[in-house]
């Protein structure tokens, strides 16, 4: 009889989930719900959706939870009177959730730059991190990876593309890799004439043809900045230089990414369009567990790939530029993008102005060595201020 392997840290893995009310967080809890014999929840950090968080608390019984604002925390404490659940808020609350002693694995799914500090603190605490917050490595890749090596923490990718690469690299030597190939759906405007992109509305940009994601990442998918950020993340996560990372448009979103080897072989990872797959793999690695995703129908399967058009997707090139600039430039890139996307969603700038703002920020930004989290956060603040100043002429 074959003995069933267990988690390297014990038969039950204890989780802290950062971003539990978002799409990745709720999908993670679906996986946990399906495997109560394997996972339990020690902490949850959410936005300000107190109603949803209370439901999660009632079902998964964490010891500690956190929300963004003090007002939401006071409301939640009032609703949890008589229970043993502790409630925190703000960045301190997120860091507490990320470093809570009981958790051996932290799911990093807070959106945007706000996820950097709690994720870095989880690494410093020696936790394994199931990483869905790409901004952590975009902003502070070298620092985070060095700290992970120092603390013995493992970063396990949750993004479908990086999970695919992680799986395609398994069992192979790093020196045999010719290149990593990240796939992109192309978003909702892949076939829209470029002269009509200027008139794209936020509502149109938020209608992704394949994936259901948060608002910011959906717009980034439409500009292909999301793929640019993933290039930077892959550079640090897999220790591969930028020139060995390619991006191809793959509208079907069936091949989640590929690795090409020196002998000409290309190994791809395919699957249904459902984030529970990569989440389950990150949580159960090096094992595999049932994720609940639909079976991929192979009969009649059609796959196509093409190189991105730089004229349609200029934001992708900015990410490569930021990598070449080095230092705090990727942090500035990310900050400028967050500001520009927010302005677009508020109807203050045009869709095509997103590229213009980020490009102008990078041209005016002087990167310095990214030698500490404080330095990176200062670069983030500076780039945001610069981006807002640069929107003045654009918004009239």
Q: Could you characterize what this model shows?
A:
45% of the residues lie in helices and 14% in strands. The protein is of the alpha/beta class. It has a 7-stranded parallel sheet with strand order 4-3-2-1-5-6-7, with helices on both faces. Helix 1 (23-34) links the parallel strand 1 (13-18) and strand 2. Helix 6 (135-151) runs antiparallel to helix 13. The longest helix has 23 residues, at 373-395. The radius of gyration is 21 Å and the shape is globular. Residues 1-10 have low confidence and may be disordered.
The major beta sheet can be summarized as: 7 strands, parallel
Low-pLDDT stretches are 1-10
Compute the number of helices. Answer: 15
- Strand-residue fraction? 5-15%
Alpha-carbon Rg, integer: 21 Å
Dominant shape: globular
Distance between the termini: 73 Å
Q: What's the mean pLDDT score?
A: 93
- What is the topology, as strand order, of the major beta sheet? 4-3-2-1-5-6-7
Q: What are the secondary-structure elements, in order, as H or E? A: EHEHEHEHEHEHEHEHHHEEEHHHHH
Strand count: 11
Helical percentage: 40-55%
- Which structural class best describes the helix and strand composition? alpha/beta
